[in-house]
Amino acid sequence: MDIKQLKYFLTIAEEGQITSAAKKLNMAQPPLSQQLKLLEEELGVKLVERGSRHLKLTDTGKILMNRARQILELTNSAVKEVKDFSKGLQGTLSIGTVSSSGATLLNESVLEFHKEYSGIEFEIYEGNTFTLIDLLNKGIIEVGIVRTPFNALNFECKYAKTEPMIAAIPREYYWEPAKYSISVSALKNKPLIIYRRFEQLICETCMEYGFEPQIFCKCDDARTALLWANAGAGIAIVPKSAFELAANSNLLYKEIENEKLKTKIAAIWVKDRYISPLASKFIESFGIV
């Protein structure tokens, strides 16, 4: 059994068909079928159940699929590590960011990192926190810039400073005397535009103040929430830094007076997986407090 056979088997397992696996591997179907047969003969086990249209992994096949994925990941990491060492701090750093992280991502320390390692190029993937975690697990990005709360179980994390959630209020909606912040109770009976992933936290906090929030719109992007609020559709509940990034001529913002309604940006990467010197230096430069 060698690395090439494991790659062939893993592709077959993931595709569920010899035909589509062969296409993905840019090879003919008969030799791929032969490689699967040789692997089963060498191991003395049946790895797949062959159906008329699809293949189904046996229990043994499932075990090998998981091990093959780990072995290939380690192999790819070893190759990358050797190449990175020979090249030094050069190349492209692939990172993922949530839309509301711009101010943190482009803070002074990260800009200094760019100046110090001017030969580095960036490839940025944008998405919500769940999308970026998926990209990290697949190895498409090395570092994710995400926002709490998230499940940190499988990740190493470095956090930026805590920031408050704010109410971005259309000027025609504003009802309070001029002041820097508002209480949670001031949101009662107001149409709210919220992050879908903050729904439970916002609802629980409002219920502590004796009311159920009037959620007008749920979305997955701070920019969308602010655009709707800027158009006068309701009050957006977003992290403070997200507001500071956007053009919101029709909005006032007020910090919400509640310790639970706070969030942080974090740089995260997969535990026990090789990361390049570029990624390590970037993490060192990330604005940590």
TrEMBL record:
Keywords (A to Z) from UniProt: DNA-binding, Transcription, Transcription regulation
Molecular function (Gene Ontology), one example: DNA-binding transcription factor activity
Location of the HTH lysR-type domain: 1-58
Gene3D superfamilies according to UniProt: Periplasmic binding protein-like II, Winged helix-like DNA-binding domain superfamily/Winged helix DNA-binding domain
GO cellular component: cytosol
Protein name per the record: DNA-binding transcriptional regulator, LysR family
SUPFAM superfamilies (UniProt xref): Periplasmic binding protein-like II, Winged helix' DNA-binding domain
Upper classification of the organism: Bacteria, Bacillati, Bacillota, Clostridia, Lachnospirales
Keyword Chloroplast: no
Record has Cell wall biogenesis/degradation as a keyword: no
Pfam families in alphabetical order: HTH_1, LysR_substrate
Species of provenance: Anaerocolumna aminovalerica
PROSITE patterns in alphabetical order: HTH_LYSR (PS50931)
Family recorded in the similarity comment: Belongs to the LysR transcriptional regulatory family.
